[in-house]
Amino acid sequence: MKIITVIGARPQFVKAAAVSNILRNYHQEVLIHTGQHYDKNMSDIFFEELGIPKPDYNLAIGSGNHGKQTGEMLIALEEIYEKEKPDLILVYGDTNSTLAGALCGSKLLIPVAHIEAGLRSFNKSMPEEQNRILTDHISDYLFVPTETAIKNLTNEGVTKNVYNVGDVMFDAALHFQETAKKKSKVIENMDMVGVEFILTTIHRAENTNDISRLKNIIEALNECGERVVLPLHPRTFKYVTEYGLKFNNNIKIIEPVGYLDMLALEMHSKKIVTDSGGIQKEAYFMHKPCVTMRDETEWVETVEVGWNSIVGTNKDRILDAIVNFTPKGNQKYIFGDGKAAEKILSAIDW
Fold it and tell me: Fewer CB within 10 A of the end CB, N or C, for the chain?
């Protein structure tokens, strides 16, 4: 079987690492990188570290408004699909690359499989929410990570070819955790061996593009009284500069890091404060308390079991959670058994 995999952003590189290495043992894979994340620290390093095969096509779309970016992807993907004549299109997550890859396949009547289907924030102002809903409703195979995702799809009338396989990011974390311990030098390079710190990431458009939300986040971090490590996303840096916001000395700003360094940072941190969906899960995988600076989360299970606190961008709530939030209860196996990739391959092995 010939399978086209479409990826374009950091979380998708991690998920593809878990699936592609197994997939290629049984099927022909054509890997398309849309170029949605395009600088070395946001893209190339992930292919190098995770052993992801070199893309057969790199569309080099880059940044841009949603319509322009998605439209350019659709034009380029249609040409490749018609040339390659795949049996199946494989897409991940909820980015513009996800939607473009799925929509192009659906229009050409090529079966589409969506990995990480069924997630809902119930906030349709989020581009990611729009992408994931549309992708789910035009996909032929839906691979979900949790029971909640199945319920979400059922409530929308999507019940055919829905498989709860667990989370492929859990597969990746289990596989690469030991590698990160051996290879990552990020803690040593920061001269922070044995130093307690809060790991923070800020990248979501709803936070970076809104000066009041971003200002609240940065002021909370400045005033929390903790050592904070912040790998600074390019978009966040752009808006911090434009808004004239300043970081205090307790915050150590570093360049975006690859997956192995991020795992190392997560493992060594005392708590994680983020607006990322993927890092909420990675915090759970690493048994770290998570403070989520959003008004909602797709990963409601992490909240229900007491390991994730949703605080929005209210400064006082962020501060209180950084200082006081402690998980309640023991962790549960809510993301599968670490064999999601194998289950996906079994389901699509016609």
Answer: C
